[in-house]
Design goal:
Largest sheet: 9 strands, parallel
Number of helices: 21
CATH superfamily of the largest domain: Methylmalonyl-CoA mutase
Oligomer: single chain
Number of strands: 11
Helix content: 40-55%
Distance between the termini: 35 Å
Structural class: alpha/beta
Number of domains: 2
Radius of gyration: 24 Å
Length: 590
């Protein structure tokens, strides 16, 4: 372990450099806050710009940082405070969306989990609840995410491997066995087939006589970032956006406590973006969804309060805190001023955070506990509403129970032992944090202008045009390459990977999670039993009605519910919609 210094287990945090005017470029100049930031550090000891401590004075996104900050670096006037900061719980919510933040209610401890068959994940969920988890978060396997049934040849070797396998309503019944739907908040990380999963969850609630208006939780349902970064798409962008607005329309009437979308920067960051790109692309996607709803003549205040966000929290402690603060300020301003939202709930950016999976290393995996702790603390100081802490073994395998328990305990120590939850926005007023928050906002606005230019003033049109041009993928790829280059040149230190490799220290031993080899065959067998028991003619009839409704442009939720009720499979439902909408073909970006 660690003998090859160029063997890097993480390759994704991109860095852009900036010229003296703060413009992004690929040269050797770097971003600055002001002219004073360009002072040369006399302690530089080699040509790489690294001093004797191995610190180069740059943030992870490439900002040159001064050695200290003072009142001269920020506006300390009352006008600035009211306009750009405000008290916690007051517009523009830079300092948090609640006046008392965690004094009123702690963030939700929500560990992402799912593997094997439904009953396997159900067992893990109950273990996590016993350990003190306060919300559920569902990981689905690749076939489920891609709208493919477990018995498809395309699913071979993938069933239940990276998440839980769900094919029909029968699986969802097992997944939530013994779990009260009206008592716990549930998150579903699924995108292209999100309308199917959401509808199936509603149907399960009806079958259990749970009022759907009581359902709490979040469905990711963010298809735009799939085209930017994660690649789990089914349909082209336009019909995919139509399905999302169908969900906006239904949810505003029937599931008012359920977050109908979680606009996700996490996957953009994991794909290689830097913090500015994550912030800019995520918020631009959010505004595109707002415009999509408004184009159907939905009142923005009828759906915007249930738009939530999902951010990555990487290892650059202060930059991440500044990113979260800037995100709240930008969202509030645009929702109020550009989109005319009147309900303060529409102005409030609520977000879930997950610590950075791509910051974890296979080398010296025990060090990942330290990384995750620092990232989790930054998320809390940045005002997150819910949090997932990664397990230390995730660069090697699915989390073991030991690793999952340590991850939960990390959050509990932060919540109950450190005292950081006592005061809202405890870093508010820090010269450095306020300056960095302003810088994140400024750089984000530059990206906004490029996107708006592509869309003739519209985020919706700009984002879709950017997808067609490969704009987002190109920007992320360049950032990822730059970061990896810095690591390999030794300009960015990763402990245990390209420095402090501890070649004589021995290997850290821990129990590794192993998935039974029989999972795939067992799931196929169960699916065959479900198909044998159902009314085949009723399934075909419901699918025909679904296709007809899709061709007419109707809201598809009632038709998908009818098909699910007959135990139509996910693959059958998605294939029916493919006949109407077609499939997305990835465009060449390079």
């Amino acid at each position: 372990m660690g003998k090859n210094k160029r063997e890097v287990a993480t390759d994704c945090k991109g860095v852009f450099r900036f010229d003296e005017m703060g413009e992004r470029n690929e040269g050797n100049s770097v971003g600055v806050f002001s002219g004073a930031d360009r002072e040369v550090d006399s302690r530089v000891v080699d040509g790489r710009g690294i001093d004797s401590r191995g610190i180069d004075g740059k943030s992870l996104s490439g900002f040159n940082l001064k050695e200290s900050y003072s009142w001269q670096d920020v506006d300390t006037g009352i006008d600035y405070y009211v306009r750009k900061l405000g008290d916690p719980g007051v517009y523009p919510f830079t300092r948090g969306i609640h006046s008392n933040m965690y004094r009123g209610k702690l963030w939700t401890i929500r560990q992402f989990s799912g593997f094997g068959r439904a009953e396997d994940t159900n067992k893990r969920w109950k273990f996590l609840i016993e350990q003190g988890q306060t919300g559920l978060s569902t990981a689905f396997d690749m076939p489920t995410l891609m709208g493919i049934d477990s018995d498809s040849p395309l699913a071979d070797g993938e069933v239940g491997v990276e998440g839980v396998a769900i094919d029909t309503l029968a699986d969802l019944e097992k997944l939530f066995d013994g779990i009260p739907l009206d008592k716990i908040s549930v998150s579903f990380t699924i995108n292209a087939p999100a309308i199917w999963l959401y509808t199936m969850y509603i149907l399960l609630a009806k079958m259990r006589r749970v009022d759907q208006s009581c359902l709490r939780g979040t469905i990711q349902n963010d298809i735009l970032k799939e085209y930017h970064a994660q690649n789990e798409w089914i349909f082209p962008p336009e019909p995919s956006m139509k399905l999302i607005v169908d969900m906006f329309e239904y949810s505003s009437q029937f599931t008012p406590r359920f977050n109908i979308i979680s606009v996700s920067g996490y996957h953009i960051r994991e794909a290689g973006s830097d913090a500015v790109q994550e912030l800019a692309f995520t918020l631009a996607d959010g505004f595109a969804y707002v415009e999509a709803g408004m184009r159907r003549r939905l009142d923005v205040d009828s759906f915007a309060p249930r738009i939530s966000f999902f951010f990555n929290c990487h290892i650059d402690f202060f930059e991440e805190i500044a990113k979260f603060r800037a995100a709240r300020r930008i969202w509030a301003r645009y929702m109020k001023e550009k989109y005319g939202a009147k309900n303060p709930a529409s102005w409030k950016l609520r977000f879930h955070t997950q610590t950075a999976g791509c910051s974890l290393t296979a080398q010296q995996p025990e060090v990942n506990i330290i990384r995750t702790t620092i990232e989790a603390l930054a998320a809390v100081l940045g005002g997150t509403q819910s949090l997932h802490t990664n397990s230390f073994d995730e660069a090697i395998s699915l989390p073991s129970e030991l690793a999952a328990r340590i991850a939960i305990r990390t959050q509990q120590v932060i919540a109950y032992e450190t005292g950081v939850a006592n005061v809202a926005d405890p870093l508010g007023g820090s010269y450095f944090v306020e300056k960095l928050t302003d810088k994140m906002e400024e750089e984000t606005e530059k990206y906004f202008q490029r996107i708006l230019d592509m869309g003739n003033g519209s985020f919706y049109d700009g984002v879709l045009e950017g997808i067609k041009r490969g704009f987002f993928r190109q920007e992320i790829a360049r950032a990822s390459f730059e970061f990896q280059s810095r690591v390999e040149r030794g300009e960015r230190i990763i402990v245990g990977v390209n420095a402090f490799t501890d070649e004589e220290g021995g290997e850290f031993s821990f129990p590794k999670f192993k998935l039974p080899q029989s999972i795939g065959e067992e799931q196929k067998k169960f699916l065959a039993q479900v198909k044998a028991r159902r009314d085949g003619r009723a399934v075909l009839r419901s699918l025909a009605e679904l296709k007809s409704a899709a061709k007419k442009g109707e809201n598809l939720i009632p038709y998908i519910e009818s098909a699910i009720k007959e135990y139509a499979t996910e693959g059958e439902i998605m294939d029916s919609l493919k006949e109407v909408y077609g499939e997305f073909i990835e465009l060449k970006s390079f």
